[in-house]
Write a structure and sequence with these properties.
Elements lengths: L1 H23 E10 L8 E4 L6 E3 L5 E7 L4 E5 L6 E4 L4 E6 L10 E4 L2 E4 L7 E3 L2 H4 L18 E4 L9 E4 L11 E4 L2 E3 L10 E7 L2 H4 L10 E6 L9 E13 L8 H10 L4 H10 L12 H5 L4 E13 L3 E13 L7 E14 L4 E15 L4 H8 L36 H6 L2 E20 L3 E20 L2 E2 L5 E2 L3 E24 L2 E24 L22 E22 L3 E12 L6 E12 L12 E15 L11 E3 L5 E3 L8 E3 L2 E3 L9 E14 L4 E20 L6 E24 L2 E11 L1 E7 L4 E5 L8 E5 L6 E4 L2 E4 L3 H6 L1 H9 L10 E3 L14 E2 L7 E11 L2 E11 L2 E4 H4 L11 H5 L30 E3 L2 E13 L6 E14 L13 E2 L6 E11 L1
Parallel strand pairs: 1-7, 13-16, 49-53
Antiparallel strand pairs: 1-4, 2-3, 2-5, 5-6, 8-9, 10-15, 11-12, 13-14, 15-16, 17-18, 17-54, 18-19, 19-20, 20-21, 21-22, 22-23, 23-26, 24-25, 26-27, 27-28, 28-29, 29-30, 30-31, 31-36, 32-35, 33-34, 36-37, 37-38, 38-39, 38-40, 39-47, 41-42, 42-43, 43-46, 44-45, 47-48, 48-51, 49-50, 51-52, 52-54
């Protein structure tokens, strides 16, 4: 009885306490928007200095539990006026007004710190992360394509591939990639990051902004800050993911069996047409066998999926964030090629005392990729449609019954191999993991004035690459008689220790800051590899070594590695008077172990003038912001070969001899050696750049933008040059290259009734010019193995690596034109057995001397676009949102090496567009030769015939979304089409060709269609 009474009393007491607590607090919900009704991420706290608060999500929604007697909330958001709101119920809608300095108060991440956007004197571009997150790509830099002025991104379609990124042109023959700084750690790329993990991206494009990174900054710097929690932030869990499929686009249409048969007969290759008909049926003008090799090689649909889970929050003294990400992308090649990665991100900051703060950040990345054999795409272009993918009649073919070109009498060799077999008999995989931990301690030595921060950032990466070739036989060329395994393990172990002392102060209208920094870094890379033959096909036996489960002994072993260290001292000072006159100056001294010249010095200075703060602009109502900028500075590039610290030894047949020969007795070959007599004296390349720009916002901040002119010159350009009267070449700093152009970015943002919309775009021009080659007239370059036939050339006062050849003036329509042309007449007299005929190309005599010689070769264009651009449209109506992004380039050229290879391989197939445009008689074509002429050596010289426009306009992204206003679980669903359409005249899979623009059939870029959801709670 007593127990029952006690229980009843306890229940009653608990009920009273619960009622009391309930009566003392209540929960309110709300939404924060701007004057246009656009949702804002804002901080909401109780007025009067209370620590109780939260923040709104991306849809502007928030939920907050407050004491019952609370009457006011304080709401603030970056770029808007802070507002105090009276609470009259359990739901509140808050509208914030943009402050007068809407664009100036935005905080921008710069090197080793942050600055107000209004204080910047450098053209630092920031990325709209909401737009970036709409891209369904597995690599973060692909999401930036067309989004930032001055930044060109050249993508590849292979799963897990890293795009080529260029900032303001190309100023080096060695390394053109920017430096990536991820939460303080130097990286070569950010292919391990998912766009959803990134909070901010700042791109330091000019010397004033990037000089703080000194010898690593010549190609630009991309600063990446990943997501973190916030103080007094209620825990928030967000899932964001999508699943979809990729499909090939712009598939290159090749000649079908009928077209190819007619073409082969016209070029004198009709014998294997006849043999195909005998073996597989049909007629010589319409063979029965008609294989579409690209259709066989490509999947119609390939899976892509991306799943993200984020947990973020914070209390009065601690913030935290935790993220998981899984990505899987199949390749559109119908073979074993895919990429999958698993990422984990952790962050925690703690305010230990009022003056001491500590923090930890870590990225863990696990990945595995199966790499395709891209040679299959080249072979698919070459392959005749007159034989099948599989041919059971070839008895020796094993283990799969693949068809062979030799079955119809064609040549054997790499270029005529069965492309499906090439893709199938390939197992090239890389797996590994990467850890990026960083720790920091920050002490406020003088409140609001002096802080000291020390941060240790590390990177450890381990990769294991396995390449396995099984035993197979298709024909005498496409075969592998012994299985082969190559196993390579590589390790990167880097660290950076940064120590930063920052002083900020002000006196009246004078504001200044000084940063003093010291950085120590070390980078180590090591690779070991082993190979063996006769390895079983099962992966469980892919181990080499005595006692191992696999093969017992190796047939080859090797090791490679590098180790570099550096120490740096740097400083940055900023000053402004009344936020009107701005000054930024930086200086960095870099010491490196790579060169005999140990130290390099990199200064910069930037000036700014905010006109809208002048008295003579007070009464104008057009501009909300107008600022002029100017900057100058020097940057370094140490991505070149280091000094040769030892003699170079050459060996080979050229230096060997046979001794002891007598009668019929063969002597013994004795290896010979030669020691290089010249040592390289190399130092880093130096970029000197100046920039002038305008930042503006007008019409009540609805229109904003920037305009810049840049001019950057690379001095001490490093390359290898021959030594006169010697076999030797020496690597050194010999030349210079200049890049210059304009950058314009614009954005218009407004709302009409319930319809909000924005239009944004950017355009960049580029002029690239070689200024000096150290006394050389030119340097010949080109695609490996084809540089002699189809050269690229580096020449003073011309762009880097322009295509060098003859200009096609037309096609000889009849014999009278040939006889009237001195060039053709002279050629026919010298080559009576292979004369120029009607239907052959006519080359322009540039100097009108009646001869076709070296002086008639000209600049036919190069791979660098003269103009890059991008623009996007965004609309929102009530709960719907729609965005469309476009991207394109113009002024660049592509060398269509696919067509040009006919110079050596005249039995190869031809694309359908080529066949359709061939000259078939007088007046039929003045651009393409006849079928017979297409395999004649006269028409296969380096010329403008093989150089095509690389211009294109692509619909980059379309996304339609719908948001559900669930109070406790805001949800957005979206459908996305990524890269659905492209408009180009180029005769290839894609005009996006990396390197120097020689297209030998790159991996095609796919369109992606997906469905996704984002849920927060």
């Amino acid at each position: 009885m007593k127990n029952n009474v006690s229980i009843m009393a306890s229940v009653a007491l608990l009920s009273c306490l619960t009622h009391t607590v309930s009566a003392q607090s209540r929960t309110i919900t709300g939404k924060v928007t701007n004057e246009l009704g656009i949702p804002l991420v804002a901080s909401i706290t109780l007025s009067g200095g209370s620590k109780i608060g939260t923040s709104s999500n991306e849809n502007g929604d928030f939920t907050l539990t407050i004491p019952q007697n609370t009457s006011y909330l304080t709401v603030s958001s970056l770029g808007y006026e802070t507002k105090t709101v009276t609470i009259t119920g359990n739901a509140v809608n808050i509208q914030l007004k943009a402050n007068a300095d809407f664009n100036l108060d935005e905080v921008v991440v710069v090197g080793y710190g942050t600055q107000r956007k209004g204080d910047l004197t450098a053209p630092i571009s920031t990325v709209n992360m909401q737009d970036m997150a709409k891209r369904t790509v597995s690599n973060s830099m692909d999401a930036l394509q067309g989004a930032v002025a001055g930044v060109q991104v050249v993508s590849s379609g292979a799963p897990g591939s890293t795009p080529s990124v260029r900032v303001r042109g190309v100023g080096s023959f060695n390394n053109e990639s920017p430096l990536y700084v991820v939460d303080g750690m130097f990286m070569d790329n950010i292919d391990f990051l998912n766009p959803n993990d990134i909070a901010d991206i700042s791109i330091l494009k000019d010397a004033s902004g990037a000089a703080i990174y000194g010898v690593r900054a010549a190609n630009g710097v991309i600063l990446v800050t990943t997501k973190k929690g916030s103080l007094n932030m209620k825990s928030r869990v967000t899932y964001n993911g999508f699943a979809g499929f990729q499909t090939p686009t712009n598939i290159l249409k090749m000649a079908n069996a009928q077209q190819y048969a007619n073409y082969a007969n016209a070029t004198g290759n009709g014998a294997f047409v006849k043999k195909s008909v005998e073996k597989y049926g049909g007629t010589e003008t319409n063979p029965a066998m008609d294989t579409d090799w690209f259709d066989e090689l490509l999947r119609s649909k390939a899976l892509i999926t991306n799943h993200n889970l984020d947990i973020m929050g914070g209390s009065e003294k601690i913030t935290y964030a935790f993220g998981l990400n899984y990505v899987k992308q199949e390749g559109i090649m119908d073979a074993k090629n895919n990429n999958q990665k698993f990422n984990m991100r952790m962050q925690a900051d703690a305010k230990v005392t009022d003056w001491l703060k500590v923090g930890f950040m870590a990225h863990l990345n696990n990945f595995k990729s199966y790499h395709p054999n891209n040679a299959a795409f080249r072979q698919a272009y070459f392959a005749s449609p007159l034989y099948p993918v599989y041919d059971p009649s070839i008895e020796l073919s094993k283990p799969e019954k693949f068809g062979s070109s030799t079955a119809i009498g064609m040549q054997s060799g790499f270029w005529y191999n069965n492309p499906i077999a090439t893709a199938f008999y390939n197992n090239n995989q890389t797996k590994g993991f990467q850890i990026l931990p960083s720790f920091y301690v920050e002490a406020e030595l003088w409140k609001d004035k002096i802080t000291f921060k020390s941060q240790l950032s590390q990177r450890y990466q381990s990769t294991h690459n396995i390449g396995y070739n099984p035993i197979y036989y298709i024909d005498n060329d496409q075969r592998n008689d012994r299985s082969f395994l190559r196993s390579a393990q590589a390790r990167n172990n880097n660290y950076i220790l940064d120590n930063l002392l920052t002083y900020k102060d002000e006196a009246g209208k004078h504001h200044w800051s000084v940063l003093l920094g010291q950085s120590t870094r070390e980078e180590r890379w090591r690779e070991t590899w082993v190979q063996a033959n006769d390895v079983p096909e099962s992966e469980e036996f892919w181990y080499v070594g005595v006692g191992a489960q696999g093969i017992g002994s190796a047939t080859g072993y090797g090791e490679n590695g590098s180790r570099n260290a550096g120490i740096s001292y740097f400083t940055r000072g900023t000053y402004d008077y009344d936020n009107k006159y701005l000054l930024t100056a930086t200086f960095r001294a870099d010491g490196s172990s790579k060169y005999q010249t140990k130290w390099g010095y990199f200064p910069s200075v930037g000036l700014g003038w905010v006109l809208t703060r002048e008295k003579f602009m007070e009464n104008q109502k057009l501009f909300n912001q107008l600022k002029l900028r100017g900057s100058w500075g020097k940057l370094g590039n140490d991505g070149i070969q280091p000094n040769a610290g030892y003699a170079t030894v050459y060996s080979g047949n050229n230096f060997s001899g046979i001794f002891g020969s007598e009668g019929t007795t063969n002597g013994t070959r004795i290896p010979g050696y030669r020691v290089g007599r010249f040592f390289s004296q190399v130092r880093w390349e130096v970029v000197e750049e100046w920039d002038g720009g305008i930042d503006f916002a007008l019409l009540n901040n609805r229109l904003s933008g920037t305009l810049d002119y840049y001019h950057r010159t690379t001095h001490d350009l490093a390359f290898s040059r021959p030594i006169p009267f010697s076999w030797d070449r020496v690597y050194g700093n010999w030349g210079s290259v200049a890049n210059s152009g304009w950058e314009l970015s614009l954005q218009w943002k407004d709302k009409v009734g319930a319809l909000g919309y924005s239009i944004a775009g950017n355009v960049t021009t580029l002029k690239n010019t070689v200024k000096n080659l150290g006394g050389l007239e030119n340097i010949m370059n080109g695609y490996p193995e084809w540089s002699a036939e189809f050269p690229a050339r580096i020449q003073i006062n011309e762009p880097i690596n322009f295509y060098y050849g003859y200009e096609v003036a037309g096609v000889y329509q009849n014999q009278a034109q040939i006889d009237a042309d001195p060039i053709a007449k002279a050629y026919n007299e010298q080559n009576p057995n292979a004369p120029i005929l009607p239907g052959y190309l006519q080359y322009k005599d540039q100097n009108n001397n009646g001869e076709l010689d070296e002086n008639d070769r000209i600049n036919l264009g190069n791979y660098l676009p003269k103009i890059t651009y991008g623009f996007n449209l965004a609309f929102d109506y009530k709960k719907f949102d729609l965005s469309v992004a476009f991207q394109g380039v113009s002024g660049n050229k592509i060398h269509n090496l696919n067509r040009a290879m006919r110079r050596k391989y005249n039995q190869m197939n031809v694309d359908a567009a080529f066949v359709d445009k061939l000259w078939t008689g007088e007046g039929t074509s003045n651009t393409h030769p006849s079928a017979a002429g297409s395999v004649a050596s006269w028409n296969l010289q380096a010329s403008s015939f093989f150089v095509e426009s690389g211009a294109y306009l692509r619909v980059q992204n379309i996304q339609l979304g719908y948001s559900f206003d669930f109070p406790k679980m805001p949800t957005r669903i979206f459908v996305t089409a990524d890269r659905p359409f492209m408009f180009t005249k180029y005769n290839g899979f894609t005009p996006e060709v990396s390197g120097m623009g020689f297209d030998a059939n790159v991996y095609p870029i796919a369109s992606t269609y997906s469905l996704g959801v984002k849920v927060s709670f």
